[in-house]
Predict the 3D structure of the following.
Amino acid sequence: MIAPLLVLAALGGVWELVVRAGMVNELLLPAPSAVATTLWEDRSILGPDLAITTWEVVLGLAAALLVGVALAVAMHLVPAVENALRPLVVGSQAVPIPVLAPLVVLLLGFGLAPKILIVALVCFFPIVVNVADGLRDVDPDARRVLRSLHASRWQRLRFLEAPSALPSGFTGLKIAAAVAVIGAVLAEWAGSTSGLGHLVVTANAQLESARAFAATALLVAEAVALYALFSALERRVVSWSPRTVS
């Protein structure tokens, strides 16, 4: 954890020197000190928007997790579902979210629902693919042992395949958590009157670059915090996995 902070401090120091030396227009690239000052002075503006964006991220991520895991299990249990849906799941990632987001807003309005759906669409793919692959990649010897014990299909799923899929599932969840913030921002850009994504747009339009960078810093911090949260949860839930042992 110390190494990333040292790198961040070094980059921030260089950034500060470049701006203070007048090598770049501060309207385009504010100094880190100006961004830090704005974070504190505009906390009454940034705080509510951060809460709104966080709520969109949490709900969208939860929806993607529920649907993604259910679909991954269905694909694993029914080969016909796997053959029919996997190409569609992969192909869905070729649809640009910035193009899709305005259409979703037009269909569902400017409320919370389109934001949740867009975040879920962004998070859906890494969850369903990683869980499906984790369910399939089970130790063959363990599978043979359960079959020799005449374990039912449900018992094999519950006692072998589902636990074996947890490390892969957490990988998908961590990726989804990192990109969920992007989905929320794109949703707010498509149509919103609140949230950090909306704040970035309005701040840029008003040439308040320090406020735009402050909002962006909060978005980055939120993505890192979510990733760290699920990493910690992974270490606790699947402590038996070799890759969770530091």
Q: What stands out?
A: The chain has ten helices and no strands.
